[in-house]
Design brief:
The chain is α+β, with helices and mostly antiparallel strands. Helix content is 16%, strand content 35%. It is built from 1 helix and 4 strands; from the N terminus they run E-E-E-H-E.
Length: 79
C-alpha cells in the first residue's frame, strides 16, 4: 500500500469532492485541490485517475508520498 497525493486544477466541492472514495480532499494554493489517500496497488490508482478524468477534472500532478521510514530500506544511491 502507498499513499498518493493527486492534484487537480480548480476548487472541487460538493459531489465532485466525493469522487475518490477513501481520499481526503484538501483545498490547495493557486486554485488547486489536493486528494490524498492510500491505494492498495496500481490498479486502484488507475481507477482513481479514471474517476478524475470522468469528472472532467484537469490533473495537475500525482505524487507518491512516503510516510514514516523509507519503504526501500536503508540502502540506496550513495549509501
Amino acid at each position: 500500500m502507498s499513499t498518493y497525493e493527486i492534484v487537480v486544477q480548480g476548487s472541487v466541492r460538493g459531489v465532485l469532492s466525493g469522487a475518490l472514495d477513501g481520499f481526503d480532499v484538501v483545498p490547495g494554493g493557486a486554485g488547486t485541490t489536493h486528494f490524498r489517500g492510500v491505494v492498495a496497488d496500481q490498479r486502484e490508482l488507475h481507477t482513481a485517475l479514471r474517476r478524475i478524468s470522468s469528472c472532467n477534472l484537469q490533473l495537475t500532478s500525482i505524487q507518491r508520498i512516503d510516510e514514516g521510514p523509507s519503504e526501500r530500506g536503508t540502502g540506496g544511491p550513495g549509501g
